[in-house]
Amino acid sequence: MEGINAKYVSKKISKTRWRPVSSSSLQQPDIFATGSWDNEDNSISIWSIGENGVSIMDDEFEGDPQLVCEYKHNGDVLDLQFLDQDRIVTASSTGAVTIFQHHHNSQTLSVSQLWDRAHHYPCDNAPCTGVVCNSPEIVTVGEDGRIMLFRADQEGVLRTIEKADSSAIHAVTFLRTTEILTVNSIGQLKLWDFRQPGNEPSQILSLTGDRVPLHCVDRHPNQQHIVATGGQDGMLCIWDVRQGNMPFSLMEAHSAESKIFMEVVNSLKRQVDLQFKGFNSCFCCAHSVGGPFSSIKPRPPVLMLRGWITVALGDFFKFRHTILLKRWTEHKHNFSQRNSPSRWEPVPHQCLAHWGL
């Protein structure tokens, strides 16, 4: 498989995130973080695909991700976001929210802040299912239906929206500085404004009569009113939060989770570029908003789509516990040159039980 590197890591990987680089920098990211799940000892790890003072072992090749450092994580890593270049925020199945500090000089990780049982039921922990960062603010959501607002420089909780949802909240993203979007297990997209004192959403959007769970949400980087969601049934929906309560574009990327799983595996065997059916279907869904799917977020394709591609490579016998790296190049796809530089991209692996990247 030309252009793809595989790294056996001995753990199930649930999340991958690139370390952000300055918007004015021409340098491409070469550091990424991973979180694991369903292991005896879960961890958060920092990996490098550049020099960064990490030596290459005899049995490894140039371009292979090199482990820089790792730290034990209590519970499954259900979500993972960089707060800045030095700090990483994780959402745990135990309900905890943790900020890890990456010390570049010693190449070590340490816990700089911990909100234990941030999400909980009356008698038990509730998984924290999603986190989004707009430094120094951190917003988390959970299966308990709560929305929590933290500041990285404060120990206490800045705000809690109790009973924000009667069902599990699956994902969250910022719409604007004071507004967030959440999606839940009954197919609703909700808009929340932190300037409002109450605990009610300012807007609720949903498909009429449709209660299919939504698992991910993201907004257009330039047109903030354009929002995309991905559902459990494989439906990709494009919404305009300014107009109406219904999506203006629907795309059935695949009819079942297992279908796209097999398409991805088969395509990898065919020395994949970005034109095979599984990924291409997902990219095409945003054509109605004036561009390819890469326009939804200015990130590498796989990471950008996050949970919208329901791939379960982590449980496939050949790719279990493996990080795949794919070299994306401009001539292999139709994405704009500005949003698709040549680089190595980690392909997140997870089981179907845990959706989202």
UniProtKB/TrEMBL annotation:
InterPro entries: WD40/YVTN_repeat-like_dom_sf, WD40_repeat_CS, WD40_repeat_dom_sf, WD40_rpt. SUPFAM superfamilies: WD40 repeat-like. Keywords: Nucleus, Repeat, WD repeat. The keyword Nucleus applies. It comes from Hucho hucho (huchen). It is found in: Nucleus. One of its GO terms (cellular component) is nuclear pore outer ring. This is Nucleoporin 43. WD repeats lie at residues 207-249. It comes from the Eukaryota.
